[in-house]
Write a structure and sequence with these properties.
single chain
Amino acid sequence: MVETWIVATGLIFSYIIFTIVIGFVANKALAVDMEDFLLYGRKAGFVVLYLSVVATYHSAFAFLGSSGFFYTHGIGFWEAGTWTVLVGAITYTLGVRIWALGKKFSYMTPADMLADFYESELLRVIVALVSVCFTILYIQVQAQGLGYIISVASGDRISFELGTFVLLVVASGYLMAGGLRAVYWTDVIQGVWMYVAVWAGGLVLSYRLFGGPLNLWKEVREVRPDLLTLPGPEGFFSPGMWIGMTIALSFGIILQPHIMIRYYTAASGQTIKWLGATTPIFLLTLYIPTALVGLGGAVVLPGLDNPDQIFPEMLFRYAPAWLTGLILAGATAAAMSTLDSILHANMTVLTRDIYQRYISPQKTAAHYMWTGRAIVVGLLVIGYILSVKTFSFLVTLVALSGSGALQLLPAMLGVCYPVQRPFTRNGVLMGLLLGFIVLYWTLVVSPNPLGIHAALWSLGFNLLACMVVSRFTQPPSETTVNRIHGTLEEYIYGSGEISLEQS
């Protein structure tokens, strides 16, 4: 009988080869055009966009971080799962406005939109750097997840460091070859595979070990009743932490460039609305099987040194070899679907907002495409270095990243929601400065004061500073406000998409 590790690693590497092939096929269809390379030509339909977005949301975080969190903190993680519903509402309302402005004014990055409205090149640079700095943490999350998966799948025959490096190179390779087209094509497959794999793993393990989900629940209630309580065995999910995580994991993730850029790629505003209406279904239901794994794992494998490894450890010990291989390949797909999106977003931001704008303007599209590829190589090196310096929980890194991007919310609301007196450039800049200071203080110096998540503290001070300073400083010019807010009012309340032909 073939050993489990051979089957698991064989299937993972078969999947890797498959993604490389897709990258080369996408390269053949690629036009020498910045919008095609960076934005899929702004023609992503619902199915492609939907599967890419949900695959990007659920990554190593879904397979490893969430199961590990259920293992340690119990059902409180479902409480924080309210973010999945909020994501849909935000996409339906805010996302469609971002799409409309991108369509009208050819925005490619979040900084494009904010710099245009607030008439500030300084803001462009700050937003670009903030976007990159905080999403690099996400690269670390996915790289660590990939390393864990392949290390467990091979029975530690492939080291964490080597597995991380190989899969980082693969994701970077097909991105450089085919641009966002390659990312979208692989994400379609990754999204389906990931969802089926998580459910298959959760159900198979629950039936093999407990006789089904209901028996699993009864066993957890008898052996670890503390996991079925709120705020949980370690008191983590207090009301302040719950609300903070909900805000950070909804608004914060949406405001990260790898999600916002996807709004720009949609073929129509209706596509964005359908995305908002259906995304919570996928996101929310994926946390049912990971709960089965995490809670069940706390019963059968207590005292695990690294809770984030509970899912692959359970599969390797208790699932058939072929199923373990398929599921761990699905886990690999999950991590890579987010990794490639983040690499692409950072490539887009650094190429568009920094290199093209300030270092080497007026070059050909081919020049910028090759510059983007070189940037991916640099991000690959940085991501690998960060990945070998591990933190305690993958989910904590995700929350940190989301809290950083969350600081863009006041500025974004000022652009997308017309009011009589909009926020000003100085107000937004002061809000960002104070928000980041408070975020550092409430995350590092004095974590979560009064049991309230750092995301809420930082956003509150950010918004307050933005409102106060905007009251006493010069707003954007009337021409700019009328141009951008007028476009939104015409689209939302007027003639709709016909009016959004690019100027």
